[in-house]
Design goal:
This protein is of the alpha/beta class. The protein has helices spanning about 5-15, 40-50, 190-200, 235-245, 260-275, 290-300, 335-350, 405-410, and strands at about 55-60, 75, 85, 90, 105-110, 125-130, 140-145, 150, 155-160, 170, 180, 205, 210-215, 220, 235, 250-260, 280, 300-305, 310, 315-320, 325-330, 360-365, 375-385, 390-395, 415, 430-435. Helix 2 (about 40-50) packs across helix 7, helix 4 runs parallel beside helix 7 (about 335-350) and helix 5 runs parallel beside helix 6 (about 290-300). It binds adenosine monophosphate (AMP) and magnesium ion.
C-alpha cells in the first residue's frame, strides 16, 4: 500500500469516528490541499515545457491519414474547374423559362460528365445534361428531368415555377484557385484526403510521428502469460497506454514491466530516454513511495514531482531526461488514463505539431448523484446518450474508484466537475468530454 492510500484510509476512519482528536497530514480526502497545483496551472506548466517537433517527412496521401500536416496547402486549381450541372435534367437559358404557361423547347444535344456538348444552345433550345457535365455554351439553368415532359426525340415541355440559375454548380464554389485549403498543424481526416485528391495532390509533408517509450513499474505486476501469485496483478497500464498512444499515430516503444529495483529502473530510464522523444512510466510516483525512483530521476534529469488538485490522479512527475521529455504517471489504472488524457495528451499533441487540440466539451443533464468536494477538478466516468426528446443526458458508470478500470471501459465520456463544484444532484447540468472514439 502506498503512502497516499494509507493516509486516505486513516482519514476515512476518522470520519467514521467524529470525536477523535487525531490530526493527520493532508490526504486525498481533504477538500483543499494548499500544496497542490490546480489542473489549469499544471496544464500550463506542462505545455510551456513541451516545444513542438519540427522535422517533417513526405508521405503519399493515403499514408498521411491521421498524421499532422507540416505545410500549408495552397490550391493550384479551382474545384469544380468548370460550371456544371448539379442534377440530371435539361440545360437551357434562364431567360427562356416560361412565366405563365407551359412551353416547348427544342432538344439539340446531350452532355455527359466527361463528355461535354460542344455546340451552342440557342434561344428556346435545350440540351439533355447529366450530373457533373459542363454547362453547354449559352446555358445557365438546369430543369430536372422529373419536371420535364418529353414530347418526342427532339422536343420537351416545361411548366412554370423554375428559377434562372437553378441546379448548377459554379466553378470554384468548393475550392478557389490559390486559396489556403488546409493549414499546417492539422490532423488529416478522411475528408481532407478527399479534398487533397480533388486538387490533384498525391503527397504531403507531415510531421514525423512522436516516438514514445513507456513501461510499467511495480513488484506486484505480472505480464500476460504469467501466473498470478497472491497479491499480484496483471499489468494493464501498458495496454491502455498503448491504445491511447497508438490511436494518435505515435511510434510506440513498449519497454515492459520493470521491478521496483533501482538499478533496473535507472538502466531502463536511460535506455528509454536514448531512444524516444517522450518517456512515460506508470506507478511509483505517489507521495512517499519508493523514494529511490525520485532519487534516480533527479540524478538523471530535471524532474518536478507535482501534486495536482484532480481526482483521480493526484501525483504526477514531469521533466527532462537527456533529450527526452519524461512523464511519471500514477499507478492506478483509471488515474493513468485520466492524467494521460488531461495532462499528457495535450502536451504530446503540441510536441507532435498539432495546433488547437482542445477537447470538445458538451453540456448534459446528469442522471446520477455525483459526490464531490470543492477544491479539485474531478473526472467521473459517464455514459452520454440522447433522449427521444433530443436532450443529452449522462449517467455515471457505477463505482468511481481509481482502480476500477471497467468504469473507464464502459464510459464514453468523462464528466468534468470543476474545482468550485460541490456534489451534483441528479437533474443538474454537467460538462462532459467525450472519449473512447
Ligand atoms: P503505485 O502508484 O505504484 O503505488 O500503484 C498504485 C496502484 O496501482 C497499486 O494498486 C498498483 O498495484 C496499481 N498498479 C500500478 N501499476 C499498474 C499496472 N501497470 N497495471 C495495473 N495496476 C497497476
Ligand atoms: Mg508501485
Amino acid at each position: 500500500m502506498d503512502f497516499v492510500t494509507m493516509l486516505c484510509i486513516v482519514s476515512e476512519r476518522q470520519r467514521a469516528m467524529p470525536n477523535t482528536t487525531i490530526q493527520t497530514a493532508p490526504s486525498c480526502f481533504d477538500s483543499i490541499d494548499p500544496t497542490s497545483l490546480s489542473l489549469v496551472q499544471a496544464q500550463q506548466h506542462i505545455l510551456a515545457a513541451c516545444p513542438p517537433l519540427t522535422q517533417s517527412i513526405k508521405r503519399p496521401l493515403r499514408d498521411a491519414l491521421g498524421h499532422i500536416l507540416a505545410q500549408d496547402i495552397i490550391s493550384p486549381i479551382q474545384v469544380p474547374n468548370h460550371v456544371n450541372s448539379a442534377m440530371d435534367g435539361y440545360a437551357l437559358r434562364g431567360e427562356d423559362l416560361p412565366n405563365a404557361a407551359t412551353k416547348n423547347f427544342e432538344l439539340v444535344g446531350i452532355a455527359f460528365a466527361g463528355k461535354p456538348f460542344e455546340g451552342i444552345c440557342g434561344a428556346n433550345q435545350c440540351v439533355r445534361i447529366m450530373t457533373g457535365a459542363p454547362m453547354p455554351a449559352g446555358t445557365d439553368t438546369v430543369v430536372i428531368q422529373e419536371q420535364v415532359e418529353q414530347l418526342d426525340a427532339h422536343a420537351i415541355r416545361i411548366g412554370t415555377g423554375h428559377r434562372a440559375g437553378q441546379n448548377i454548380r459554379q466553378a470554384g464554389e468548393d475550392i478557389a484557385l490559390n486559396s489556403v485549403l488546409l493549414q499546417a498543424g492539422r490532423r488529416l481526416n478522411p475528408a481532407d484526403l478527399g479534398i487533397l485528391a480533388s486538387i490533384g495532390i498525391g503527397e504531403v509533408s507531415v510531421y514525423r510521428p512522436l516516438r514514445v517509450a513507456f513501461f510499467s513499474t511495480g513488484d506486484e505486476l505480472r505480464s500476460i502469460g504469467e501466473t498470478l501469485a497472491a497479491g499480484e496483478v496483471y499489468d494493464s497500464n501498458r495496454y491502455a497506454l498503448y491504445g491511447l498512444l497508438k490511436r494518435l499515430n505515435f511510434d510506440v516503444l513498449d519497454m515492459g514491466v520493470v521491478k521496483d529495483d533501482p538499478d533496473l529502473l535507472e538502466q531502463t530510464l536511460k535506455n528509454a530516454a536514448a531512444n524516444a522523444d517522450v518517456v512515460l512510466t506508470s506507478g511509483g510516483v505517489s507521495v512517499g513511495e519508493a523514494d529511490y525512483i525520485k532519487a534516480i530521476l533527479n540524478k538523471l534529469g530535471q524532474i518536478h514531482f507535482w501534486k495536482i488538485a484532480i481526482k483521480p490522479g493526484r501525483p504526477l512527475a514531469m521533466g527532462q531526461l537527456d533529450q527526452a521529455t519524461f512523464f511519471g504517471l500514477p499507478g492506478n489504472p483509471v488515474a493513468v488514463m485520466v492524467t494521460f488524457l488531461q495532462l499528457v495528451q495535450p502536451a504530446l499533441l503540441k510536441m507532435a505539431g498539432e495546433t488547437h487540440p482542445q477537447p470538445l466539451l458538451m453540456d448534459a443533464i446528469c442522471q446520477s448523484r455525483l459526490k464531490k468536494q470543492p477544491g479539485r477538478t474531478e473526472f467521473q466516468r459517464g455514459i452520454l446518450s440522447r433522449t427521444a426528446q433530443g436532450q443529452l443526458i449522462v449517467e455515471k458508470t457505477g463505482y468511481q474508484g481509481s482502480g476500477i478500470l471497467s468504469s473507464m471501459s464502459q464510459a464514453n465520456c468523462l464528466i468534468v466537475l470543476p474545482d468550485e463544484r460541490d456534489t451534483v444532484q441528479a437533474g443538474e447540468i454537467v460538462q462532459v468530454q467525450p472519449f473512447n472514439w
